[in-house]
Amino acid sequence: MHRISWRIVLAATLLMSSLVRASADDGAIIDRWYSALLVADRSELSDLLADDVRMKLDDIGVVQTKEDFIASIDEWQGAVAGAAIRHRIEKSENGETTVLACYDFPNNDTLMRETFTVARGRIVASTQTAVAQDCSGY
Questions:
Q1: Residue 12: how many other CB atoms lie within 10 Å
Q2: If you ran DSSP here, which 8-state letter would residue 120 be given?
Q3: pLDDT tens readout for residues 42-72
Q4: How far apart are CA 67 and CA 77, in angstroms?
Q5: What sign for the dihedral angle of Cα 74, 104, 44, 52?
Q6: Domains identified in the chain and CATH numbers
Q7: b vs e for 72-97, b when ≥16 Cβ sit within 10 Å of the residue's Cβ?
Q8: Run of H or E including 55
């Protein structure tokens, strides 16, 4: 039988706790993201995005930079007025979090799957794909 060094056990424990903490931190960043998105908070959204972020909108074949995204907030603010956004994390591992999000606009709703890559406390990549034209699958 092999003896496991207490140092190895300690190192493994610290690594696991840091991964759990990072996953929880990513969840908090995602929660902040949707809260800021709902009220079109340009300052908070800008703070959450890394300067070199790439935001891929699969359905329309567009990749936005941080500057592109922030510039679109005025238009988004009009679209999101009176809306609700519900989201739940489907999985989170290795800095990547996949979210199912229902965008419930006053006249329609849509179900999206969004994947965020978080590093150093900021969103460094995001991919958004439509799942359904309504939120019945949420």
A1: 11
A2: T
A3: 999 999 999 999 999 998 999 999 999 999 9
A4: 16
A5: negative
A6: 6-132 (3.10.450.50)
A7: ebeeeeeebeeeebebeeeebeebeb
A8: strand 49-57
